[in-house]
Amino acid sequence: MQTASGQDTPTPVSIELLLFVDERPSSQEIMRQIKNYIQSVETEPSMTLRAIEIGEQPHLVEHFKLIAAPALVKIFPEPRQTLAGSNIIQQLKKWYPRWQQEIAEQQISKTDSKVSSRLDNISYAAELIGLSDEVFRLKKEKEELLEQLQFKDRVLAMLAHDLRSPLTAASMAVETLELIEKQEKNERTIQLTEQLHKQARKQFQIVNRMITEILQASKSTNAELRVHFDRFYLQSLCDDILPQFAEQIQSKSQTLETDIPQDLPSVYADTELIRQVIVNLLDNACKYTPESGKISVSILHRTTQKIQVSISDTGPGIPEEKQERIFEEHFRLQRDEAKEGYGLGLSMCQKIVRAHYGQIWVDSILERGSCFHFTLPVYR
């Protein structure tokens, strides 16, 4: 900067400060005191303060190597300096005169051109924080992508292993049927043919369920769920679904109880997606309910705006601390590691129900069973 006489004068310098705080009242009080002190300082150089919540930008905490909050970091002019502890305001009052002296000495010893090349301090701080944010975002994206790749590798390995058993069983059933077809028909061969048909159908259903679950996972992780809202009646949908489970329930001597009023109002939802939810919950109920156990399906007109569907079983139940986590993607209880499936069904159910502005949850007691509930909006 030049005066009217053409002489150089020092360019004003602002001390740039970053204050790292958390949500504790003591941190907020220290921030208030520092702001008041900065406003009260009338001498040059001025101080510019930017407050940063450590929970929102942990990458900056790592960048500045901070170990406690609150912490006050002088980022300009250099060298960088950090003040920490409960007496930050006293430290700031102590250091401000020294910073004044350092800046005055720098301005005397350096030409105006050298000083001006470092004076875009606000832009520098903003650029630093922006770059740090971008680096943090890219790191998170990389972690998510690596997790997805690892998950897909695991699923492919499991799929190759798990598909072999039902396909082998189905293939053997079909080959045996071919041999029986060449024999003379009698009561024994007819009965055996029926059993083999059931066996083949069951194994193909297992294969179909595995493939469906993988496709659902692909939709869940790679694309937004497409919902086609329409008006339909849940009782009609259940009348269509429940007979599909008759053979599966009968094979384990289970009992199916239903409480589905015929005067329920219609719902506003995607029929096929809600079908997926009900089929998945029923399939789980059949899988976890022991021999001679009971499965219940009920629907309740809960409020003028919501209908609640409940599907319960008398299986082993779910530990209380795991009852929220079971809806997470890829999460499986330790006891289920040996069972077929990939821990994707419930997370997909949650995604579908939330897309319909509903809720899904589970009530469960160990050794007594579980009851899954979800709500849907009434058509108005």
Q: How many β-strand stretches? A: 11
Low-confidence stretches: 1-7, 111-119
* Shape field: elongated
| Strand content bin | 15-25%
Name of the CATH superfamily of the largest domain = Histidine kinase-like ATPase, C-terminal domain
Whole-number total of structural domains: 3
Largest sheet: 5 strands, mixed
Radius of gyration: 34 Å
Order of helices and strands: EHEHEEHHHHEHHEEHEEHEE
CATH class value of the largest domain: Alpha Beta
Descriptive notes:
The chain is α+β, with helices and mostly antiparallel strands and 380 residues long. It has 3 domains: 14-119, 3-Layer(aba) Sandwich (Glutaredoxin), CATH 3.40.30; 141-222, Orthogonal Bundle (Helix Hairpins); 230-247 and 257-377, Heat Shock Protein 90, CATH 3.30.565. The protein is 50% helix and 17% strand. The chain is built from 10 helices and 11 strands. It has helices at 25-40, 58-63, 88-109, 112-116, 121-181, 187-222, 234-241, 246-251, 271-288, 345-355; strands spanning 14-21, 46-53, 71-76, 81-84, 230-232, 255-259, 267-269, 294-300, 306-312, 360-365, 369-377. It has a 5-stranded mixed β-sheet. Helix 9 runs antiparallel to helix 10 (345-355). The longest helix is centred in the middle third of the chain and has 61 residues, at 121-181. The radius of gyration is 34 Å and the shape is elongated. The model is unreliable at 1-7 and 111-119 (pLDDT under 50).
Short summary of the structure?
The protein has 380 residues and is of the alpha+beta class.
